[in-house]
Amino acid sequence: MPLQVHLVSADAEVWSGEASLVVAKTVVGEIGIMPGHEPVLAILAEGQVRITETDGSRIIANAQDGFLSVESDELTIVAGNAALIS
């Protein structure tokens, strides 16, 4: 079962969909999230969020000032500022 991912900035949803892997930069280092990951709450650091969709294609966004939350294969990234770069 894939991850359900929601990447949201302060004013709009930036991206949502299914993914097999998400890598984000937190204040304590990078974290990789795959389906089945244990629940976690982390503070984002300024940097890239790299999303690998279930078909293997990749989405890259810049994000800063926020947090990420994982529970039951649902990943939510809430950033004060986020934008897709590819």
Structural overview:
With 86 residues, this protein is mainly β. It contains no helices and 6 strands. It has strands at 3-8, 13-26, 29-33, 40-53, 58-71, 74-84. The protein has a 5-stranded mixed β-barrel with strand order 1-2-4-5-6. The radius of gyration is 11 Å and the shape is globular. The model has no long low-confidence stretch (mean pLDDT 96). Keywords: ATP synthesis, CF(1), Ion transport, Membrane, Transport. Residues 3-82 form the ATP synthase F1 complex delta/epsilon subunit N-terminal domain. It comes from Microbacterium awajiense.
Poorly predicted regions: none
Helix/strand/pairing category? mainly beta
CATH architecture: Sandwich
> Under the CATH scheme, which class?
Mainly Beta
Overall 3D form: globular
The largest sheet is:
5 strands, mixed, barrel
C-alpha end-to-end distance: 25 Å
Number of structural units classed as domains = 1
Main location: membrane
Membrane topology: Peripheral membrane protein
Domain ATP synthase F1 complex delta/epsilon subunit N-terminal: 3-82
Family: Belongs to the ATPase epsilon chain family.
